Amino acid sequence: MHPNSAFRRDDRALLETLIDEIGFGMVFATTPDGPRVAHVPLVSTGDGALQFHLARGNALTRHIDGMTVLAVINGPDGYVSPRWYADPVQVPTWNYVALELEGRVRRMDGDGLLGHLEALSAREEARLDGPPWTMDKAPEDYLRKLMAGIVGFELEVLAWRETLKLSQNKPADERERVAAGLESQGASAIAALMRTLAK
Question: Residue 74 and residue 78: Cα distance in Å, rounded?
Fold first, then answer.
């Protein structure tokens, strides 16, 4: 993660919110077959753990139970042009939000997997207009067949490492100029975070 402590935010509730808002990340592990990564939806349990699932045929599935892994969640980002600063003596940089979570993984049983899938679909369905889809709308035998093709895991987070690089090392007027520049280029999410979290 970025070495500048200005870009740290020791706020577990905020980090949990970022996980839920972004909802997707990568899980990295070193396996006997070499380094591997899986791109997965992530659900925070709210008590220091992350849940995810993998296809049974995924290269990580046969190795990951009991391993220490790294999960990475990337949030909004955007290129920062030196031309947006009042002081012309600047260089290009990148503002971004990223969270690394290191911890031990355990395989979930069938009930745990079902609970994870219910929580995941409920979270995502709540973001859509109209009546939500729920797991009980799928025929039981069909659902059972699909669940046989995936494996659920829970990562007990032992280390949280965040970078919220939002120009906190710049004065407020410069931060606003950068936020406006990012917004003008279509990077409204990172601009909004600069305006709300970098104060």
Answer: 12
pLDDT less than 70: residues of the chain? 199
Q: 31 forms bridges with which residues in the sheet?
A: 34
Instruction: State whether residue 35 is helix, strand or coil.
Output: strand
pTM above 0.85, yes or no: yes
Nearest to 60 by CA among 151, 160, 158: 151
Count of helix runs (H) and strand runs (E) in the chain? 5, 7
Q: Check residue 88 and give its pLDDT.
A: 79
Q: Are strands 49-55 and 43-44 parallel, antiparallel or unpaired?
A: antiparallel
Tokens coding 186? 């279509």
Which amino acid would we find at residue 174?
E
Token readout for 93 is: 């940089």
Q: Tell me how far CA of residue 99 lies from CA of 1, 38, 83, 125, 158, in angstroms.
A: 8, 16, 29, 24, 13
Are 77 and 94 in contact, with CB atoms under 8 Å apart? yes
For residues 119 and 51, the answer to whether their CB atoms sit within 8 Å is yes
The interaxial angle of helices 140-147 and 110-125, nearest 10 deg, is: 110
Measured in whole angstroms, the distance separating CA 91 from the mean position of its chain's CA atoms is: 28
Q: Write out the two tokens for 62.
A: 């046969």
Question: pLDDT per residue over 24-62, tens digit each?
Answer: 999 999 999 999 999 999 999 999 999 999 999 999 999
At 28 the pLDDT is 97
How far apart are the two ends of the chain, measured CA to CA in Å? 21
